[in-house]
From TrEMBL, chains A, B:
Annotated organism of origin: Bradyrhizobium denitrificans
Pfam families: Hydrolase
InterPro entries: 2-HAD (IPR006328), HAD-like_sf (IPR036412), HAD-SF_hydro_IA (IPR006439), HAD_sf (IPR023214), PGP-like_dom2 (IPR023198), S-2-haloacid_dehalogenase (IPR051540)
Membership in a protein family: Belongs to the HAD-like hydrolase superfamily. S-2-haloalkanoic acid dehalogenase family.
Keyword Membrane belongs to the record: no
UniProt-recorded name of the protein: (S)-2-haloacid dehalogenase
Biological role: Catalyzes the hydrolytic dehalogenation of small (S)-2-haloalkanoic acids to yield the corresponding (R)-2-hydroxyalkanoic acids.
Assigned EC number: 3.8.1.2
Catalytic activity: an (S)-2-haloacid + H2O = a (2R)-2-hydroxycarboxylate + a halide anion + H(+)
Amino acid sequence: MPFKAVVFDAYGTLYDIQSVAAVTEQAFPGHGDIITQIWRIKQLEYTWLRSLMQRYEDFAVVTRDSLIYTLRILGLPADAATLDRIIAKYLDLDPYPDARAALAAMKPHRLATLSNGSPAMLGALVKASGFDTLLDAVISVDARQIFKPSPEAYALIEQTLGLAPSDVLFVSSNPWDVCGAKAFGLSVAWIERVTPQAMAAACIKTELVAPLTLFKALRTQMDELGFAPDYRIAALSDLPEIASQHEP
Amino acid sequence: MPFKAVVFDAYGTLYDIQSVAAVTEQAFPGHGDIITQIWRIKQLEYTWLRSLMQRYEDFAVVTRDSLIYTLRILGLPADAATLDRIIAKYLDLDPYPDARAALAAMKPHRLATLSNGSPAMLGALVKASGFDTLLDAVISVDARQIFKPSPEAYALIEQTLGLAPSDVLFVSSNPWDVCGAKAFGLSVAWIERVTPQAMAAACIKTELVAPLTLFKALRTQMDELGFAPDYRIAALSDLPEIASQHEP
């Protein structure tokens, strides 16, 4: 029996968060990579820390605060207009090149996204990419005021779609998100965009590393959290075949 | 009225977690810095993620798993004996040079540590450093099966010492820990070991950076989580004067 729904993470899975690098580089020439990486690392840290501190603020606040942090620690002064211009890219991130075709090929299934993004951020993003016509639901953790990987966030899939976890294939490129979804009880496909071989090769020169390499080392390799994905795929284009089978 | 108790974070505050670098470098020559930094970054990530996933395992497990992750993604094979030898350093971390004198100078106050460490790890650590004779209590979050910055972790101070938050000065060098303690309602002194000026200067060469520089960028500068420390000090030796006053 096929999965009844395929639910996607948004940031890093359907949309390339690294696509902010062009904007950060334009705003601060020579600093684009380090801003992009520290910003993303801190953005996620703040979602976890605020959730754990029971001090939820939505992803728009966290995204802005983590950018403010990044520019401050790099000693790069920014006015409100510059901050706004950089952050605006989050409303128009580049989709991965194979995202549209993969979604279209899976239209027989119900399709949704479950994201840390605020409803306003996600609404703008799916509209800008035209995915709003392909997705049956755009689910934001904001409804529960806690970020992934809290089980409460993943529970929103069943509450929104009315489908049991066993009927859902969850898709993410983020290892911590894969582990969180598995811990919750979903079937999970992990998009492994950086192979272990490429990762180890990039780290051979260990005295100095590119910020992007450090980002990949921290956030693209499967975590040691006691869980493993059901499916390990290289790209979104591998999904339609998996979605039509069901052997989790 | 002076604070009745001064409660210290352990890892990074009383004890220098960077002192594992000598051991990681010895085990994997040329890779000591990158192992040390990724290990520590992932160790904390795993405490936050496991807490949020409601999948607590103690700090000994998290410390081992994060080291396994680090060596795997760097393509460095390790047998159990090598893992054990590296991890053993966590039971004998170097105290900061001014830690003993600062603790001794504050003996009129009740002194304790509140740490993510497991009871066994903390017991070994305070004994190896001789701080067991200076501390009135060694408090592990393990009693609540959740890591800092959960409010449940900070609540252990009152439960253990029988003192209200307003009677306690909490001390940490970890910005996320400072914010968590402030959110809980404690008075907090932040040990700012890396000045903003030093941080920005280290990041001027942004194309390639040392892993230690990236670590400092991620984990030594005050976070944007809506809280600020009551006291901002440069070293543990600044504490005794603060502890004897009480104007939080």
